[in-house]
Amino acid sequence: MGRQGVVLMVRDSAEIMARAPDWQAYMGRSLPTAPYLAPDAAPRGSFRRVAVLDGVPRLYGYRKLPDYHLTFVAALPLDEILAGTQRQRQATFATMAAMSLLLAAMAWLILRSVRARDRAERALRDANRALSLAGSVFQHTMDAVMVTEIDGTIVSVNPAFTDVTGYEAAEVIGHTPRLLRSGRHDAAFYRALFEQLASTGSWRGEIWNRRKDGQSYLEWIRISLVRDENGKPLRYVSVSNDVTELRAGDEHLRHLAFHDPLTGLPNRALLLDRISQGISVAQRDGRGMGVMFIDLDRFKPINDTLGHDVGDQLLQQVAQRLSQAVRHSDTVARIGGDEFVILLEQVDDGITYVNLAEKLLASLSRPMLLGPHTLEVGASIGIACYPGDGDSAATLMKHADAAMYVSKASGRGAYHFYHPGMTAQSVQRTAAEPGPAERAAE
Ligand SMILES: Nc1nc2c(ncn2[C@@H]2O[C@H](COP(=O)(O)OP(=O)(O)OP(=O)(O)O)[C@@H](O)[C@H]2O)c(=O)[nH]1
């Protein structure tokens, strides 16, 4: 290659990437005016010029490698070309060719390692990003997360877990989830849970647990088995939400749907359901049951003279007195206005109804103290019994109402058992003025 021959690898950015000889002295230096870097430069060519960096006039040959954004350049000093013999020139070109090959191989190796490094860095960056995303979700999710070993030892919990349970991470790590048990589930419950977890790798459902302060709470929980890359069980991850308030809200709504808001007694819908259930049980057991329809006497004047609020308080007192007069297993319902119904189950003899009806009439006719007022009302009662007076909730209600109407008609403050002749009277009354009792029974 002679004393001043050179080979170069130049980036499209004009930076010298490799040079022989004197690699280190020229690495990174820039050749912005090199003709082969001109936008319209041919892919290969030759030219003559005085080198920018060392001032030696040379004859240059180049070839662009667009895929690598590089140009490969070889140059011989003009004086050596002109002075040398043919043999010298051949030797020089042979050396240059060998150098060029060497340089190209080095450049290729460098590029390959640079690309491999770029790829590795990109993969690492992606993995780090995914990890930090997972970490951020773990930290900030509203779901309580608990990670355990396969033997149940807790290895990690998130801040939401601490919010729900009251336990800091340090207080639970190394323990097992038994720490949270509320005692509301039996051993069979946990056995079934673990069996499903072992066979399917997941479990979901509701569990009553206990917070650090001793309070029980209901959580909706999903537990999943996590395996390693070889499929070997590695950890359990449980994600849960505290649904105690949600459940309480549901129960409150359900209570509202089936109870009278003024007295708290079951409403007509719940009563009809209980009568239907009672009929099924009575049928199965061959027992009797009955329905007592109670309508207050002269309640309207109290409302009209003292106001609705006082009327409300009176209805509440009536509800209390009725509830106190019956057995725990009986149902006292308010089905509208001043109408109440008692469902008596497992009663086979008429005397039980007679005794209760008299007890109720006596109880309701006792004066009621409502603030400054001492009020007196009475009641009219109608009784219909299963199976003799009907075998459906609607029929029993209708017949008890008809019997109650007879009590009203007979002067109030009385009770009557239903008998078929009463239906005609009731039909006449219904035609004249449909009452809430009929509506309730339909
Ligand atoms: N305070 C109060 N009054 C109600 C409520 N629902 C219905 N009422 C009233 O209860 C009364 C029921 O009417 P009736 O049964 O015909 O009145 P009554 O004076 O008892 O008539 P008899 O049964 O024939 O003796 C009506 O005045 C309704 O406005 C309620 O929730 N609160």
TrEMBL record:
Listed transmembrane segments: 91-111
Upper taxonomic lineage: Bacteria, Pseudomonadati, Pseudomonadota, Betaproteobacteria, Burkholderiales
GO MF annotation: an example: catalytic activity
Statement: the UniProt record of this protein carries the keyword Transmembrane helix: yes
PANTHER family noted in UniProt: DIGUANYLATE CYCLASE DGCT-RELATED, SLL0267 PROTEIN
Protein name: Diguanylate cyclase
Organism name: Rugamonas brunnea
Every GGDEF domain range: 287-420
Keywords noted in UniProt: Membrane, Transmembrane, Transmembrane helix
NCBIfam families associated with the record: GGDEF, sensory_box
Source superkingdom: Bacteria
